[in-house]
Amino acid sequence: MDFTAHLLKEEVMNWKARLVRTTALYLVVPFTVILTVVEPLVSSANQQSKQTGKRYWQSLPLGMPNLSESRVSKQIAPGVTHTVIVRGEQSNRDVYTVDVTFQASLKAAQTVAESLKAQGYQPQIKPILQRAPDDPESGPLGYLVRVGAFSTEALAVNLRLQLEAAGYSGLRVVNTAEDGGKTTGPWVVNVLEVDPKQYYLKIAPALATEIVPDNEPLTQLSLRTLAVAAVNGGYFVIGANDGTPGDLAGISIINGKLVSEAVNGRTSLILPSGSSLDARIAAVSSKIAATANDGATREVDGLNRKPGLIRGCGGVGGDIPTESPKHDFTCTDSSELIQFTPAFGKSTEPGEGAEVVLDALGNVIEFRQQRGGQIPSNGSVLSATGDAIEWLQNHGQIGSKIDIDTRVLANGEELPIDEAVGVINGGPRLLRNGKIEITAFSEGFHWQDNPEFYYRFGVRRNPRTLAGITATGKLLLVTVDGRQPTWSVGASFSESARIMRSLGAIDAVNLDGGGSTTITINQQLVNRPSDSTGERPIADAIVIQNRIDTPTP
Fold this sequence. Notes:
- There is one protein chain.
- It is built from seven helices and 32 strands.
- It has helices at residues 3-52, 106-118, 153-165, 218-225, 387-395, 452-459, 493-502, and strands at residues 69-77, 80-87, 96-103, 123-128, 142-150, 172-175, 187-194, 201-207, 229-232, 252-254, 257-260, 266-271, 280-292, 297-299, 302-303, 309-313, 325-332, 337-340, 354-359, 364-368, 379-384, 402-410, 413-414, 422-425, 429-432, 435-436, 464-470, 475-480, 505-510, 519-521, 524-525, 540-546.
- A hairpin with a 2-residue loop joins strand 25 and strand 26 (435-436).
């Protein structure tokens, strides 16, 4: 047996042994100890909860049940409680290592491992067995080739530099505590529990910089909006190569107005509004159509973004390579009709094409032979590329009329939109009706052409921002710090779902995370963002305000 096959066999045997030990532990301990010790406590706590209204959350289901855990709660406004949970400690078994490659097949991984061995290294092949829960395929997701085991990151970085000099590329220095397997932590979790029924509370999305383009740190956004508390919101465009920086990569509705089209079918957070005091979590789609007064109709491909670049995909009109969601990927379309509203700012994205300017009633008041002009404060602009130019030329001359029909569907049903409705994009879903339901495959978090993407994004632990709804209608906004092994290791998708369920959520969704994960209390940052540069500028946020303090638009 060659060394790679031996390593693989050993890894699989270790995995089976861990599974048996873990299964045995969870079969024996809960039924012999927890039922006799914890059950009476839970029963007592539930009885007391009914009498006092206080929260009695379960311990976080992270690591082994006997890990230490501390909680500090404070009411920061009527109906708003902030809790900090610290669980576990850094394990001396976790190390820094270098991920050399991720391969879909064992044979490909063995080839790289043999090459490393020939150069004097001692590689490890680690089968990645966890696929997205809704992935129709079975079997290992892929095979990870690693080298080294170090107590400090600096030593692992030195090895990475050696390997790069030897011709290897795409290397990553990682800590094994973030792998998604067994560890003791630590974890630092911030929880906002918000009662939407409190009259003096306003819970709403807010754009960074007050318009779509550009981003803004949460602390600055919180200060500007006088937020009692806030968390970062949805996915967004960071670099110009992927579209308009600051454009939401998914749906955004603010004050009842659609700001960004949906990544169709992706789970999102619908915030309380005038027509409903309950927040909701639903799969959301949007449909926008332009109808000229001669009856000609054309779909509108997008809203308030650079034509041709669709971040996260999930669009309409023949996007390449797919109209299905594909997270952190930019699809393209050379023929698009994009609507720009005042939410985008003063002017549209410049470039070749054509534009028509519409007044508030849809009357065409100007035709432009290129893109990049002023957006009326009480109207909009239709910006065309490719074959959409001809449609505007034929149906959008001055004096004609174009009606824009916008529909938003939540779980397949039309979402009533009043002036207070707000929607934050997210994904994937984590909980449905109290049960774990992680829709990562269907929502584009698994790339069939690159299975490593799901491993990095969903299997490994990362910083997370999560939203959930309890059985009593309370809104939970949760952050989990990560990528900081001495502070907090983050959470996988499955751990995120279990965290939210343990906190009392019956429905939950994953929001933008990673370096974007931030939370403020009274305009002060209270978590530790993972980016080495500090707090990352974001595109939107969920802000909680006192109505009497809310700035006038």
